[in-house]
Amino acid sequence: GQMLFDYFEPHFGSELGVEMAAEYFAFLSQPSTGTSASMLGTGSMSHLSMSSGHDERNRFMSHLLVKVPERLLTKMLIGDIFDRQNSYPMEAYISDNASGGGVDRIMRMAARIADEQGAWNRAIVLHMRCKQYNRAVELVNNQLGQSIVERSSSEAKKTHLRLAADILQWLAESGTKEKVDDRKLTTLHLLLDMEEFFQLAYNQNYDQALQTNTAVLFPISGDDVERSAKRQKFNQLEEPVTKNLDVLLVSYMGCLVKSYEDAVQKVQGGGGGWGTTTTRAYNDKRDETMRRAKALMNFANHELPQQFRLKRETHEELTNLDMRIQYG
Question: What is the reported pLDDT for 78?
Answer without folding.
Answer: 41
